[in-house]
From TrEMBL:
One of its GO terms (cellular component) is outer membrane. Residues 1-22 form the signal peptide. It comes from Nonlabens dokdonensis. This is Trimeric autotransporter adhesin YadA-like head domain-containing protein. Residues 743-770 form a coiled coil. It comes from the Bacteria.
Amino acid sequence: MKQTTLLTVFFLLLFTSITSLSAQTLNESSGTGAHINITSGDFNTAFGDSAGFSLTSGSQTTFLGYQAGRSNTTSEFIAIGYQAGYSNTTGFDNLFIGWQAGFSNINGGDNTFIGAESGEFNTTGYDNTFVGEESGANNTTGYENVFIGEDAGFSNTTGYKNVFVGNEAGISSGTGYRNTGVGDEALSDVDEGWSNSAFGESAGIDVGAGIFNTMLGAGSGVATEHADYNTFVGAAAGWDNNRTNSTSNANRNTFIGTANGSSNREGEDNVGLGAFASFGSSGLPFDNFRSQDLLTGSRNNLSRTTFIGTFADAGNNDVTLVGYSTRVDGQYGIAIGTNTDVLSSGSIGLGYNTTIASGSNNSVGIGREVDIDNQEAVAVGSNSIAQANGGIAIGHQATVDGTGNTTTFTGNNMAIGYEAAATNNNSIAIGATSSASGENAMAIGQAATAPNDNTLVLGGVTNPVSVGIGTDTPSAFASMELSGNNKGLLVNRLTDTEITALESNLTAAQKGLVLYDSTNDVFQVWDGTQWLSAINTDDQELSLNGSNLGITNSSNTVDLSTINTDNQALSLNNNMLSITNDSNPVDLSPLTADLETRVAALENATGSASSGGMTPLLFNYQSVIRDTDGNPIKNDAVDVRIAVREDGVTGTVVYNEEHSLTSSEYGVLSLQVGGGTLLNGDFSTINWGEHEYYLEISLDSAQTGTFTTLSTTQLLSVPYALHARSADYITGTMGSTGSRAAKSSQNTEIQELKTQVKQLQAQMQLLIDKKN
């Protein structure tokens, strides 16, 4: 039917042009009332009843159809179709083709309306182009619009500078302006909106009063109404944006890719790039844009997200995702890499299949298949694992967790190196395959292991190391080498009380332990059962047995025969000490001039003082008392009974006394044997030189009169010291004045003897060094 109509119009135009050449005024008309009022107009053509009825002087008009251009009075106007341009009076340069096309136009000019009822109600609108049935039908004063397609721009009234191309494109545009909609139903409901662009079937179909939106792709931004400044590119991109018709939300979103951001409703300031990337758990695309039960994504109100990659899944506000099937559920999270999952707040995951579990807030995972299950943790390296709060794992398969913990696991451990593992609170493992499973333990070095709490292991059994302090090249035969000319080695300094407390925890396993006794200013060495002074020269003498040089209180001797090949020997002639084949003897007379006299005087003074009662017949005893659980009994009043047994632990009790004491803050008891409350016997008559004596200690901790024997041990050095006071060869007496004099000079004499022995030792060493 439309083809027949067009052919008819064509032949009528052709006939008009041919016949007009022969007309005097070059006007042609046919039909009742056609050109009935024309007087001076030229080049006019009217075919149809009342066509060009009102034209008088207008020129270059063409009216074809019943009442086409009936009211026209101006020039340059073409109206073809039933009542096309019916009401036009002064409008010029118009082209109306179709049933009632431009019917109501009065003085609008430069319009092109093609199609039944196209521009039907236009009155003064100008520079419009409407092509298609009812295209721009309701336009009245709108101008510079282009509507192409059935019902394109149908409801536009005063809107201007709009472009709608497609069936029902901009059909409800109303007063909106500067909009561009291309595609079936594109921008069909942009009633008040302006400066929107939509390309594709149903693109921006419901934009309403929105402004500055761009939708490109079938179904892109299909539900967006009122929202502004959005950009959706791709089929169904931004599909559900502002479906709630909020007038204040769902703005400034950019979604690029098929179904990208399709689940967003009121979220703002989001950026998405990639097919099927959206909010919540992403699913497969839907193939019917009007089906809302298959929308990709399960969340619809997120803001400030950035997700890039196919199936990227943004699950919270303020997240960033880059990569295929990445997912971030924790706010402020970042995920970069294929299948990377960040499910906790403030965390960052970077790498293929890296996972940061829910609740692992503020953690960082970098590497292939990294696994983090706790908060504030860091894991860097392929297959590294952080399952400890505050843990740090760096290296391939490095691990921090709580598998080595036996109580409460809090974390804060660190593993650095290939397969390094730190598995207890505050533990640190540094080095390939190193392991720290003790609490507060640290293992440093390849394969180093620290299983015990509060320990630091360097190198370990597998790869023992040499530590250098102040040197770049420590000896390979030393565990530690110190170097420097302004520093020394400062060891632990403990008082007597502290040493006693420490001893209660020591066993044979700690044999060789060294510390400095700050009370007595001496190094102490633990021999497995007791403390021994590391430096002890008191009461020592040099002795020469053949060619073996020895010193008292030591079983070690020096064989001097190997020092020189000259078969040398030491000899003492009067006070001259010499060695074979050496002409430089050592004069010992300054050291020995009055030695015998002073020793005899010291012995006589000691004997006389004792006989006079000035030297006390006492010796000290000290011990730590404990309860049945092994805990020291501190600051408590107790009774102690002392018994001296003769010739065995069950021998006759020759002396018995009792002390009432109060233990110290460390549980230490201090007393003087011989100074307690006498129960039986006489301490002064004990013959220490002829028998073995044993000291029995009994305790009454509740002071009830019931004593418990704690120990019975043999007395060694003290009895011999007491016996020395009555040695047979010491004779003579001293008065009280002599006794006090002897006592006051005793310490001086002893110190002089010690000094002389040390000097003798030094002279011997010089002589030996000289011969070497």
